[in-house]
Every structure is written in C-alpha cells, then in structure tokens.
C-alpha cells in the first residue's frame, strides 16, 4: 500500500504513539519539560521515522489529523502525570508549516485545552523560523492569538533558518531552541562556542527561555551550564522514550 493509505489506516488503528524526550534544567538537573515526538509502529514494517512520514502527511493534508492527534494525546498525558502527583512539566509539541498556516490551528488548541483541562502554561508549540517569514504580519497575528490562550511558543532549530534577527523582537515567543548543529562542536570549535554564547545572551536579553538541543556528551552540558543556558535536551540525558519510561525518569528526577 501507498504510505498515504497506510497512514490513514494507522490513525484509525492506533498505530501512532507519542514518545517524550526530557528537557532538563541546566542548573538543577531536574526534568522541567518534554518534547513530544510522534512514532509510528507499522505492523508490517516496524517503526517508521517521522522524518519519513511527516513530509508525506504534510503534502497529502493528513498532517492536520495527525497533528491534532499528537496535540490531544500529549495534553492528555501531561494532565494524567499531573493528576498522578508528579511535579508539573511543560510539554512541547512540534507544529508543521501546513498546520501553522491552517485556520483550524487556534480552534484545535482551544478544543484540546478544554477537553483535557490542562492549564495552558504547561503546553508549548515548537515552530520553525521558515514558517514565519512568508507573511510576517499574519504570522505575528497568529502567534499573538495562540499566546493569548496562555500557551508558550518556541522557535525550533534556531539559527538554521533564514529569518532576519530584526524580526525576533516582533515575534511574541517565549523560547528559543538552539539548533543541535551549534551544540555538536561547541566544545571543540571556538567559533561555534562564540555563536552559542551569543544566542544564549540574546535570549536572556530578550527575556526568552533558551533551550539547547542535541547535547550528547558531558562537555556539551558543562559548556551550556557555564554559559547560562536554561534548559538542555539531548541523548546525554535520554533519547525520546515511551510515556511509561518517561514517567519512571520523572520519579527518579533524571
Ligand atoms: O523524533 P525524530 O528525531 O525522529 O524526528 C524527526 C523529525 O520529525 C523532527 O524534525 C521532528 O521535529 C519531526 N516530528 C516528530 N514528531 C512530530 C510531530 O508530532 N509533528 C511534527 N510536525 N513533526 C514531528
Ligand atoms: O527538528 P526537531 O528539533 O523537532 O527534532 C527533534 C529530534 O532531534 C528528536 O526527535 C530526536 O530524535 C533528535 N535528537 C534529540 N536529541 C538528540 C541528540 O542529542 N543528538 C541527535 N543527533 N539527535 C537528537
Ligand atoms: Mn522540535
Ligand atoms: Na529542533
């Protein structure tokens, strides 16, 4: 079967799963958040990577249904963790370009918040710079409407897009997420280290939370901690894991 057809069946037959990757506070070493990342357990082909099927879903329009599914399930899960008495965390959900530009996004978020009863401050959407640049005014209006709901907004893969820094002050965002390309050689390349320091400084100056992604080794962690990065995500702490395993990590702190 075509990927598109299999995806339609996957949604109906519950073959999608949300995995969670911890975001850790750089100074306290505690889990303060998670990125929700979709996984597809195809009964015939095993695990299919979102890098493979998200672009197809985006093309075919299925991304709206899949995106709403991820949003609902990660908010239900987060609410369940809170009701189980765990320290509240913020869950970040990736939004694709087509979802961001859809008229239905705002209503979908409102509906999920109502349906789950999750306090909006525990939800954040991750968007990329490239989604915002075609029509900056419209994007800013959409971001403001989302922020008015009380949720957070993060710029994902920051530093790799083509947005002008002059727009950064106009975007009503709460978080900058430094792309992992900058983190990878922060301990070996002095120029990369300087760029990472500048992004951290910029975020602090603009009162934004700054998250580093792709921290894989102790040297990345110590660099980020020493340079005032708030939050760190990466294989050093954990790969994305199923909800049950994530809950175990939260109970053990990291
Ligand atoms: O988790 P992994 O590294 O395999 O993710 C690959 C890509 O798929 C990343 O760019 C990630 O942002 C994207 N992705 C993962 N889950 C989702 C999702 O729920 N929605 C969207 N739009 N993209 C996702
Ligand atoms: O594009 P986006 O930033 O949403 O992609 C998120 C993906 O990045 C996650 O699904 C995860 O698989 C991947 N990722 C997370 N931490 C690391 C890391 O430490 N190293 C590498 N290479 N990839 C990571
Ligand atoms: Mn992301
Ligand atoms: Na990213």
Automatic annotation (TrEMBL):
The lineage of its organism: Bacteria, Pseudomonadati, Pseudomonadota, Alphaproteobacteria, Rhodospirillales. It comes from Paramagnetospirillum marisnigri. This is Signal transduction protein. The chain holds residues 296 to 549 of 553 of the full protein. Residues 1-254 form the EAL domain.
């Amino acid at each position: 079967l075509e990927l598109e057809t299999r995806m339609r069946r996957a949604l109906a037959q519950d073959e999608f799963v949300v995995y969670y990757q911890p975001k850790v506070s750089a100074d306290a070493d505690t889990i303060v958040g998670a990125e929700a990342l979709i996984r597809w357990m195809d009964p015939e082909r095993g695990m299919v990577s979102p890098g493979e099927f998200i672009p197809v879903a985006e093309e075919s329009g299925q991304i709206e249904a899949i995106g709403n599914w991820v949003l609902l399930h990660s908010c239900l899960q987060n609410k369940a963790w809170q009701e189980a008495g765990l320290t509240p965390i913020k869950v970040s959900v990736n939004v694709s370009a087509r979802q961001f530009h859809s008229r239905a996004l705002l209503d979908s978020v409102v509906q999920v918040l109502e349906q789950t009863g999750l306090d909006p401050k525990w939800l954040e959407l991750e968007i990329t710079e490239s989604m915002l640049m075609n029509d900056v005014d419209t994007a800013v209006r959409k971001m403001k409407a989302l922020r008015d709901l009380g949720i957070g907004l993060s710029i994902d893969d920051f530093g790799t897009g083509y947005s002008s820094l002059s727009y950064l002050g106009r975007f009503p965002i709460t978080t900058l997420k430094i792309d992992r390309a900058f983190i990878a050689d922060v301990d070996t390349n002095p120029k990369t280290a300087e760029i990472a320091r500048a992004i951290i400084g910029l975020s602090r100056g603009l009162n934004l939370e700054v998250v580093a992604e792709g921290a894989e080794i102790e040297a990345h962690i110590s660099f980020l901690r020493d340079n005032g990065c708030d939050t760190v995500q990466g294989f050093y702490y954990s790969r994305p894991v199923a909800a049950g395993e994530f809950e175990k990590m939260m109970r053990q702190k990291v």
